[in-house]
Amino acid sequence: MKKSEKGPVIVLVLILIYLLIPLVVSIIYSMFSNWTGIVPKGFTLKTYENLFKDKEFLASLGRTIVIAIIPIILTIVLVLLALFAATIYFPRLEKYVQIICMIPYTIQGVILSVSILSLYVGNPTFLSNRIVMLIGAYCIIILPYIYQGIRNGMRAVNMPVLLEAAEMLGASRIYAFFRVIVPNILSAIVVSSLLAVGIIFGDYVLVRNLASSAWPNVQIYLYQSMKSDSMKSSAVFVVIMAVTFAISAVVLYLRSRESRGRRAH
Amino acid sequence: MDDLNTEKTPMNKKKYIYLIALLPFLLVAFMYEIIPLITIIINSFRPDTGGAFTLENYEKIASKLLYQKAIYNSIKISMISAVAGIIIAFFGARAAHQATGKIHHIFMAILNMVSNFAGIPLAFAYMILLGNAGVMTQLGRTLGISAIADFNLYSTNGVSLIYVYFQIPLSTLLLIPAFEGVRKEWQEASTLLGASKTRFWTDVGIPVLMPSIMGTFSVLFANALAAYATVYAIMMNSISLLPIQIAGCFVGEVKIRKGLGGALSVVMMIIMVIMILITNAISSRFQKGGKKS
Predict the structure, then answer these.
(1) Domains of chain B
(2) Mean pLDDT of A160-171
(3) Cα-to-chain-centroid distance, residue A65
(4) Looking at residue B10, what is its pLDDT?
């Protein structure tokens, strides 16, 4: 406190420079038609203009959004129902719900995708449908984040006390859970859904191994354009990163607002 | 006893209706997590040609140079990137803990954002930066710095360099909270006793942090071991790494090799578990040492 030390600031600035260089260079690259010398030349935004006219690109963005929304809603409903039953009626099962929810942390994309693939490929029913497999895989990969968000939210609102109060006022437990608890943990659910959007938005392994040509999302679009046109792909890159950063900025904002709100109580 | 039982039964009956709420969750978890994992382990003990129990898939991995190399490269790249990541994260997290005000907030915000920067976009950014016609590569050529101009991104070293990048935000974010455990008074006390700053960190700071450092290390190792998109974008299939070999058994081949791919997946999970056990053993030694003194 007495003296503002310079050492830590220098370390932080150096790390920030290191982390930002690849980003900044790619952003500049997307806006100049010629960068072979030291200074880039030929400023243009034409690449972005063409990109947003490209139907393939817009379709790939749309696919990414659709394939993010379905598993997130599904997983939130599943985890809410499971935690409702487990925390109120079967506390002993809660541990197992937690274990199931945390396993995906350790298995990650490659193993999850090939194990789902080897189980359902060639299955005569709808289960062999690539999109169905992909949705199932996304539900599992985002499970730890959704679970932790909802669980932390439940702890923060002091669920047993709230439930008891609602019951004393004559509400049933189901009513109390879904009309009193869930609205109170909504912001925790929003934060974890946004994290899940970020994960699905950045996914390449699962979509490549499970769906690939059946569902070319924006990551696959980037991968394919990388081989042919580096200007165009740098613009795709900027769009992807802008969305990713916007998501994490909102998460950061919501979290800081929440912790400030809690301190104020 | 009898009384208790009769009292319990109607309540239990009512209670068990709520098991229905658990069913959808369990259904999805079993269909897409538990059964697939069990299947892949069972498949690893079955020959691809069909038939009964066998160890031939594991024998193939143990005897073929391609798979030995995949295991070796995977462990090597994961180790290098995890060690480099943890060292940079140590200094970064310490600095972030010491710094206050604006720079701290900016650092945390950028760290959080960049922690999502991985996979195909990261590989692409490094190709723009250090690829054959990359911006830095050309800069190195004009300035005559051969270390940059001749750097080969499309190699194990190049891949390690990119892996280090995505390890830094993650490891720093994981380590920062641990520095709360290193009390200011300890540092003041050791300064009073005549210890230098470096001495404080080697003798007190790092041992106290060791459990967190080891925990973070195993996360980083697992993270690098399972990483697929980044390396695939840079090298396609021209590098022998476990995730690439595993995916190769299932995707893009005429015939899917479930057995071999399953065995490779099991090997990868075993490596992960071994690393967790090693890091746990190291950190528990430090925790015991702390309790005694």
Answers:
(1) 1-44 (no CATH), 58-292 (1.10.3720.10)
(2) 86
(3) 11
(4) 52
Distance from CA of A265 to the nearest CA of B (A): 24
Across the interface, do B120 and A112 touch by the CB < 8 Å criterion?
no
Q: Which pLDDT value is given to residue B1?
A: 41
Burial environment of residue A162 by CB neighbours within 10 A (0 to 12, 13 to 18, 19 or more): middle
Position A4 scores a pLDDT of: 54
Which residues of chain B have a CB within 8 Å of the CB of A86? 22
Q: Residue A251 is encoded by which pair of tokens?
A: 């998460």
Q: For chain A, which residues make up each domain, given as ranges?
A: 51-264
**In this model, does residue B133 exceed pLDDT 90?**
no
Mean pLDDT value of segment B242-253: 88
The C-alpha atoms of residue B132 and residue B127 are separated, in whole angstroms, by 8
Torsion of CA A186, A190, A192, A195, to 10 degrees: -170
- d(Cα B203, Cα B200) in Å, to the nearest integer? 5
- Contact partners, residue A70, CB within 8 Å, separation at least 6: A135
Contact at CB, A11 and B95, closer than 8 angstroms: yes
Out of A109, A118, A240, closest to residue B121 by CB = A240
Q: Which CATH superfamily is domain A51-264 in?
A: MetI-like (1.10.3720.10)
Asked if the Cβ–Cβ distance from B112 to A204 is below 8 Å, we say no
- How would you class A233 by CB atoms within 10 Å of its CB: exposed for 0-12, middle for 13-18, buried for 19 or more? buried
Entry pTM: 0.88
Sign for the pseudo-dihedral over CA of A223, A225, A229, A235: negative
CB atoms within 10 A of CB A260: 9
CA atoms within 13 A on the CB side of A79: 30
Which chain A residue has the Cα nearest residue B130?
A22
B125 at A interface, C-beta within 8 A? yes
Pairwise CA distance, residues B242 & B69, whole Å: 9
Whether the Cβ atoms of residue A41 and residue A35 lie closer than 8 Å to each other: yes
Contact criterion met (CB < 8 Å) for A22 and B125: yes
How far out from the chain centre does Cα A209 lie?
Answer: 19
Yes or no, beta carbons of B21 and A104 under 8 Å apart: no
- State the burial class of residue B49 (Cβ atoms within 10 Å of its Cβ: 0-12, 13-18, 19+): exposed
